[in-house]
Request: fold
Amino acid sequence: GLIVTGKAVAEKLDLNKVFLFSGTRDLTTYGVTEEENPLLCKEVKAFYEQAGDGAELYLLVMAQATLLSQMCSIEDGSPLKKLITYAKGRIRLVGFNRLPPAEYSADTTETGIDKDVVTAATAAQSVGDSFAKKVMPFRCLVPAAGWGGKTDKLYKPREGSTNRVGFVDDQVNKTAAVGQMLGRAAKYPVNYSLARVKSGVIATEGWLTNGETPEECDAMLDLLDEAGYIIYRSFPKKNGYYPNDDPMGAPLSDDYSNLNYGRVVDKAMIIAYTTFVEEIQDDIETDDD
Reply:
């Protein structure tokens, strides 16, 4: 699933309505252009570049002024709840991203990233927990929007309590690479880490959300990694970038501290449920004992 901000396309793409994509050709089908919807185009193309055409992508486009916290709200009828309910439990991963309007000013005073992102993660965790109780588990990726390159007072996801939510701090085309990471996760088995090198290069070019390359931020990469952000990393004698890991907003002591740990358990939950739900109210043969 993917929830992003954008513009409606007359008679083709409505806001706050769920659409099911199966490939980049659907952008043309729904009249989506880079000029009118740069974020939507970027995220859908990045997703399918990783996941490949044919992968199911449930898409919800919201008005440009919509906050991340509004997308993830625990209120009835919120975009996240609407998306998960519409898909009837088929969604296991959800990405969020927004291209804020020019007049938007991110509050980064206390958190180093947009405070709205932290609020959104907390809300998404609550919604995820509630749907897991309905046997519809999912994990989320949010952008580490608003980071200006400073590490003092920087929010540390590893000290948080949102083990269903990961913070993406790498960037393509001026917005966090959420669709790219979402596509990489969707492509491979649930037990594979985003950082698995055998999965191949995820980007030939890349930046952090402060607009600088990983090389320009070399002195801060270890700190960002330890803080629990998903960032680009590189290896000597290998071209391109790879994800550093797939941390969630939880300490390493948490059983679901990484995305692949949680996805394995989510899959086990679904298998257990679909197996044993068939046994409810069944007849049982008995003998004299």
Remarks:
- The first helix runs from residue 25 to 29.
- Helices lie at 25-29, 38-51, 68-71, 79-86, 115-132, 178-187, 218-227, 259-276.
- The radius of gyration is 19 Å.
